[in-house]
Amino acid sequence: MTRVAAVLSALVLTSLPLAAPAYAMVDDKDVARMVSFGGNCPKCDLSGRRLQNARFAGANFAGASLVNADLRGATFLGSNFAGSKLMNADLRGAEIAASNFAGANLQNASLDGVEAPGVNFAKAVLNNVTARGAELPSANLVGASMVSSNFTGAELPGSRLVDVDARETNFSNAELTGAAMTNARLDRATFRGADLDGANLVGASLVGADLRGASMDGANLSGTNLSGVHGLRQDQLESACGDDRTRLPAPNLKLRACRGGRNIVIIRSPRPPEALRPPAPPRPPEPIRPPEPPRPPR
């Protein structure tokens, strides 16, 4: 994180001369030199450009198109890329500080090793993204779509993943300590070896998710649907809590209830209903006896 700290300090020095329109013009798709961008360039088209190690400082690229752009090692300082198009872009090793990517489309983008503390990806499209080892502490991912993405080993402590759609996404060995994940759709996601200590999963759906080896100390599972979860053991639930809406995957698992910050009672997973027995066949009617013949008179 040392490089991010350095670029944050540099932002103060670079912000003053950037009030004019964007001062870097890139006409050649193969750019061999370092390129700097600042000022206003909304809806600019830089699709397919080679922009390795480019520097965006105080730049407004809202709605810009950088589809298939090569942005490896690029630096984004205090810049606005809200609603921009970055599909299939390569941002491996990029550094992002105090920048806004809300509503941006990064589908199929490469974000491996990105350093982006506190980045704003609210309502962004991050489907099929690779972000292995990305550093995203305190990131804002509220309402983002992250379906079938790879966040293996990513650092997301304190991040906000409220209302995200991250079905079938891989969070193996990711750090999600204290993450806010309320109402998140995490069905069939993988959390093998992930750190979910203190995570808020109230109302989240993890149907069919893989929780083998995940740490969940202090996690709030109130109203969480864990039906069909794989690899969940009782020892993982000892320090977590839930409520009567929590759905556990097996009848032998139990969960303490969250009340006023204390664990009070035991909530057990519902047992499967017993098979209905077929109704007993009706008894056959008793045979009708014929009337006795009249007795002869005396």
Folded structure, characterized:
The protein is mostly loops and 298 residues long. Helices cover 6% and strands 11% of the residues. The protein has helices at residues 2-14, 234-237, and strands spanning 36-40, 55-60, 75-77, 95-97, 241-242, 254-259, 262-268. The strands form two sheets. It has a four-stranded parallel sheet with strand order 1-2-3-4, covered by helices on one side. A hairpin with a 2-residue loop joins strand 6 (254-259) and strand 7. It is elongated and about 135 Å long. It starts with a helix and ends in a 30-residue tail after the last strand. Mean pLDDT is 86; it is low at 1-32 and 261-267. InterPro entries: 5peptide_repeat, Pentapeptide-BTB/POZ_domain. Residues 1-24 form the signal peptide. This is Low-complexity protein. Residues 270-298 have a biased composition (Pro residues).
